[in-house]
Amino acid sequence: MNKTNQLYEGKAKIVYETDEPDKLIVYFKDDATAGNGEKRGIIAEKGIINNRMSEFFFKLLKTNGINSHFIESINDREMVVRRLKMIPLEVIVRNVVAGSLVKRMGWDEGTPLKTPVLEYDYKNDKLGDPLLNRYHIMALDIARVYELDEIEHIAFSANQIMMSLLKSKNIMLIDFKLEFGLDDKGKVVLADEISPDNCRFWDMTTNEKLDKDRFRYDMGGVEEAYKEILTRVTA
Ligand code: ADP
Ligand code: UDP
After folding, report:
1. Distance, CA of 106 to CA of 6 (rounded, Å)
2. Helix axes 46-63, 145-167, angle to 10 degrees
3. Which of 82, 107, 132, 149 has its CA 20 to 30 A from that of 180?
């Protein structure tokens, strides 16, 4: 398979068309952004780590009955995926209070949630990815009810599967963001990536942050944290 045109360059990845119309190649960059692009930097080897970790989690989910766009990794920084029509939603699942939930609700970071919480953000950089509920999504014609039902089923199942694997490595899955697309039959398919860029991982003993919060909040040890979480998750 060969790359043909560059389809899209985003903040963290480049997406290429290939000579097979239903397949794309995703290239993972080292570029990092936070605060809707206000903070920018490079995290050395992040692209390699995010490609490997996404491969690991997509395979774990597949073993547990959840299909994704992942087909195969072809080198350190690139994977082949199924081409989808992306739904412009960021689907966030939370187990413990962190990030924007602290600001929005005034709750203390680190407070466990009694039940997992699912939120939708509209994937729209101009608007700063605003929070939406099902009614906004239907009113804006972003997705249908049955698609949201399927998205929520996949997101909560992925949460259970990932959380249980991570617990066995003494890591708490605080929260994470997923993206979904539709295949040519209109079926909802998990897409994008699953990595320390879009998950929060804390060591269960020390509460040490092993994810992009180290970059967001200038905590130092960013590269080391990305390397450590990959090693621990995939060991
Ligand atoms: P952003 O757009 O947020 O800056 P990235 O740099 O991660 O994000 O770019 C990757 C882009 O590819 C995202 O817009 C994402 O929605 C899109 N994408 C992910 N998986 C697929 C897929 N299977 N088919 C088509 N587009 C995809
Ligand atoms: N997230 C993401 N992309 C975004 C916003 C959030 O990957 O554009 C992830 C983030 O890494 C965290 C979860 O979604 O794991 C919840 O993020 P939150 O809403 O707390 O936002 P933030 O603190 O990033 O503003």
Report:
1. 42
2. 100
3. 107
Q: Give the residues across from 173 on adjacent strands.
A: 201
* Residue 83: C-alpha distances to residues 3, 21, 56, 111, 222 (Å): 13, 8, 20, 38, 32
Please identify which residue in the block is written with the tokens 């299909």.
67
Question: Which residues make beta-bridge pairs with 189?
Answer: 181
Query: What residue owns the CA closest to ligand 2's atom 17?
Result: 99
Which neighbouring-strand residues pair with 16?
6, 25
Which ligand 1 atom sits closest to the C-alpha of 191? 20
Spacing, Cα 85 to ligand 2 middle (Å): 22
Q: What one-character DSSP code corresponds to residue 140? A: T
Spell out which residues line ligand 2, taking CB within 6 angstroms.
90, 92, 98-101, 129, 175-177, 198-200, 212
pLDDT score of 36: 80
DSSP characters over 195-215: STTTEEEEETTT--B-STHHH
What Å distances lie between residue 130 and 94, 98, 127, CA to CA?
Answer: 17, 17, 6
Residue 86 contacts residue 181 (beta carbons within 8 Å): yes
Q: What is the pTM of this model?
A: 0.98
What tokens does 42 get?
């490079």
Q: Report d(CA 90, CA 132) in Å as an integer.
A: 10
Question: Which tokens go with 79?
Answer: 């994977």
State whether the beta carbon of 179 lies less than 6 angstroms from ligand 1: yes
181-217 pLDDT, tens digit each: 999 999 999 999 999 999 999 999 999 999 999 999 9
Residue 184, token pair as written in the block: 């040519």
